[in-house]
Design brief:
Strand content: 15-25%
Order of helices and strands: HEEE
Largest sheet: 3 strands, antiparallel
Number of helices: 1
Shape: flat
Radius of gyration: 19 Å
Helix content: 10-25%
Distance between the termini: 56 Å
């Protein structure tokens, strides 16, 4: 009986964590890393034709040679916020 309660509690915590991660982009965003568009500050050119709230990807190679994909969202003041960052696996046989 205690094992079932423990299992249910762990399952509930894992599901609650998934709900938080899969929500909207309401956080302050991720800190830029070398290669990010916003690493040296916001870009000088404003994205005036792009709708506020729209998102776009940016792919680059970090200092360790890993391929990184970041998703940016355009803020109301036309600044960019990094909302997602994914590291692609490094596979020696897939490089050309």
């Amino acid at each position: 009986m205690i094992e079932k309660i423990g299992t249910l509690a762990v399952t509930a915590l894992l599901l609650a964590g998934c709900m938080v991660v899969s929500g909207s982009y309401s956080s302050e965003g991720l800190a830029p890393i070398p290669g990010s568009i916003t690493y040296s500050g916001q870009p000088r050119t404003k994205l005036t034709k792009s709708p506020i709230g729209s998102s776009f990807p940016h792919t680059f190679t970090d200092q360790t040679g890993r391929e990184v994909e970041e998703i940016y969202v355009i803020q109301p003041d036309r600044s960019l916020r990094i909302v997602e960052r994914h590291y692609r696996p490094f596979l020696a046989w897939s490089r050309r």
